[in-house]
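Notes on consecutive records. When two proteins share a document, each keeps its own sequence and its own token line. Never mix them. Below: protein one.
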Amino acid sequence: MAQQLVPKDRIPWRHLALFGWLPSPLKVFAYRVLLGYRIGRGVRFSFGGIVVGKSVEIGDHVEIGFLAVVQGKTIKIGRYSSVGMMSYLSCEAIEMGEDAKIREQVYVGGPQLPESRFALGSRTIILQLTSINPTKPVIIGDDTGIGGHCLIFTHGAWLSALDGYPVNYEPVTLGKSVWLPWRVFVMPGSTIGDGTVIGANSLVSGAIPANSLAVGSPAKVIRSAPEFPRRLSENERAALVQTIMAEFDRYVCYSGVTVDEQGPFRAYRFGRKAWRLLWLRGAALGSVKRGDTVLTEAALPQEMLAQLRDEGVYWLDLGGRTRSREGSPLTEELALYLGRYGVRLVRDA
């Protein structure tokens, strides 16, 4: 095969052979000492999972899955984020916020330019078998979800421009709290505003305004604010939280957890371990101890948050949309379950 001027390593075989087989602790050590990567606490690499870059920063508790490849000149991955099994990310600049999840067999790559950039916001998710082309920048806002089999392209070219066929290279921007269900195709130059939902199997071309529901090929707005999304009353919100907690208890009990009422607390027991949950509904905080979890529907004042930090108490604040930086197994399980209802909480800094 004829040699090209600019080398293109789709698969970094040399790096994979040197580091890919190492157990996670040795790989972290080698990356820090030999390559100068900045890697936080509790980072885990599965077999064959590698990160290849000139400037690399990986936050606390990040997970890189089995045979996952992340490569670029500059790479920054926020705390508690993950790249799933056999996913492939290749771009000049890669940025992932905290609690961002890329699931299995996601492909991010394509022809590169100096401005090529893939930026994924915090508390986002990209589901299986999605393909993203960031030749021009692809910017995805916080709390946005991308379903499986979606396609996002920033360039469209095959037939000759000299023969009059269209060739375009344009960035794509998805705002905050956008939801693309399965099999959505986003064309070059498209923008989708904050809080917008695109119907499954739709094709997006051009600009879709914020707080809209758009469906079809090409996608057309069929609902918009203030009718979409529907605003819940306080009573409706409280009833929904009640339903979520009932379903959570049913789910964990099915998995072998026992739930007991202990005064204002709920005790969740699994094996010989137990954790306490205080579900606040306007009542006073009361007597909590280190390791407890507080679930509150109303936003907690700053002085109460400071008290919880000082006492080592975890929290999930639905009204303030925040949570403690870390948590017990109960905290983490409940936070994950809330995500099934689209409730995502910002980790305390």
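Protein two starts on the next line and is unrelated to protein one.
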Amino acid sequence: MKRTPFVESCLVIGQCAVNWFARRPLAVSFEVTNSCTCNCRHCDHGGPVDEAERITPDDIRRWMKVLHPGGIQISGGEPLLRDDIIECVRATQRVGGLPYTVFVTNASLLSEEKYLALRDAGADQFSVSLDFPDERHDDFRRHPGLFAHLDALLPRLAALGHDDIVLNTAITRENYKHVNDIAELAGKWGVNISFSAYSPRRTGDMSYMVTDPLELAELRRQFDLLLERKGNDPHGRIVNSCTTLEETYEYFENGGTPGCTAGLRFLVITADGYLQPCSMHFRKYLDQRKLAEEFTPGNECDECYVAIRSYLDKGFWQLLRENVVDHFSFRLRRDRARAG
């Protein structure tokens, strides 16, 4: 995975530090649409919905001025369904490389032209969903031909040399045996990979949760192989830290992870322009401080370990070390200095 340039690294780190002590979110996810081209078996968003009222680029600019996040996600639904998605991405940008912007997509509507346009608008990273290393992905997402599209498109985009594509695999009972196969495919395509955990809170369906002792033993084996693969990979294709991988396994082993800081360290801005603690708690606010004061201290939910939480629900110094210093350019500069 590429490192962010040094000056931009300093700006992101500085903004996140300011937000930490100011009790503002480090990262914000803008769900710019609830409509989707897929109808995934593990998700509560799917198909077209009425969007008579939806967040505008001006709304996005207003929230950016209020919250000043160091990192953001543009997500949905499928954000590429919006005709003005380029303007939505531009609306998040500030002078000097802030924020670090992740564009979350199933890539069914992605093309090389749209990829380059989104990069030009400010997208730093493309998080592309992948559930299986083959056509089973189509059935799980109820979108025929999707895997073939990814198989043709993603290696072509990777060959452009920007190193900004990260597959995101939500681990479920359906695919837990194949996480290393997916990691291997990421290497074949020349892209990166991040793993997160299925949450039954999203759908109310426990059947996709890994719970059986034999399943957990196989998942442990898969994670041990992932950790070994990560340690031997000079390209850093697996972007989860080792502790995040371990904590993801523990989420399944324990049946949950307590101590969620949704609303404080991260939050969602919904397609209709409200603040939510996360995408699975539907209490709506118009003031982040009120959200952090009313919701976060009493939040006892332990039902997810989704990507944004797994990267941000850590102590300040652990967060800095794992998700900033190692991801941005400081480590690269230090290694070059040692080599010299």
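For the record: The mean pLDDT is 91.
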